[in-house]
């Protein structure tokens, strides 16, 4: 089961590779639809005709996109009408999902080991810094392998 989870993470990471770098693409203030339509010197009426919609409907669609309230289905439909691919995906902020899991495992391991060490300190059984660091590394590795749901709390 452990290997299956890690294989899935690796496969997902490979699927997300094409999106790396795309997070730097800035969405135009007015949104893509309005910007591309204007760039093509196309009126709202002309785009509306392609989509069998009124000028007012196109105006609302452009406003919804600019405010983040448009559906993915609508974006794809408009892209198709303009002979454009609508691309949707995620680019991991830490480079890969695997790295994200590693970060979360380290955070949780530090929290667990620090809490345990605090209890031991109260009982005058505190462990030294080297042993503390080693315990965090070992627990983080175990958490990564097990992919515990507790990573996401």
Description:
With 153 residues, this protein is mostly helical. The chain is built from 7 helices and no strands. It is elongated. The model has no long low-confidence stretch (mean pLDDT 91).
Q: In short, what is this structure?
A:
With 153 residues, the chain is an all-alpha fold. The chain has seven helices and no strands.
SSE pattern, N- to C-terminal: HHHHHHH
Q: What does the main sheet amount to?
A: none
Distance between the termini: 21 Å
- Percentage of residues in DSSP E strands: under 5%
Anisotropy-based shape = elongated
Q: Find the count of extended strands (DSSP E, 2+ residues).
A: 0
Class by SSE composition? mainly alpha
Number of helices: 7
Overall pLDDT score = 91
Rg, rounded, reads 25 Å
Work out the oligomeric state of the chains in this entry: single chain
Helical fraction equals 55-70%
Low-confidence stretches: none
Q: Helix and strand layout, with pairings?
A:
Layout: H1 2-16, H2 32-39, H3 44-51, H4 55-66, H5 72-81, H6 97-122, H7 129-146
Task: Name the descriptors.
153 residues; mainly alpha; 0% strand
């Amino acid at each position: 089961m452990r290997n299956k989870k890690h294989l899935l993470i690796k496969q997902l990471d490979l699927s997300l590779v094409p999106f790396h770098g795309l997070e730097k693409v800035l969405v135009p203030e007015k949104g893509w639809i309005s910007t591309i339509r204007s760039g093509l010197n196309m009126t709202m009426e002309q785009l509306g005709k392609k989509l069998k919609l009124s000028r007012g409907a196109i105006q609302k669609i452009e406003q919804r996109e600019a405010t983040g309230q448009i559906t993915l289905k609508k974006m794809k439909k408009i892209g198709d009408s303009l002979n454009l691919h609508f691309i949707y995906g995620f680019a991991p902020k830490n480079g890969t999902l695997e790295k994200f899991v590693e970060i979360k495992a380290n955070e949780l391991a530090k929290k667990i080991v620090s809490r345990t060490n605090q209890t031991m300190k109260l009982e005058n059984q505190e462990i030294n810094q080297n042993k503390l660091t080693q315990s965090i590394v070992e627990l983080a590795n175990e958490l990564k392998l097990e992919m515990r749901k507790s990573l996401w709390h």
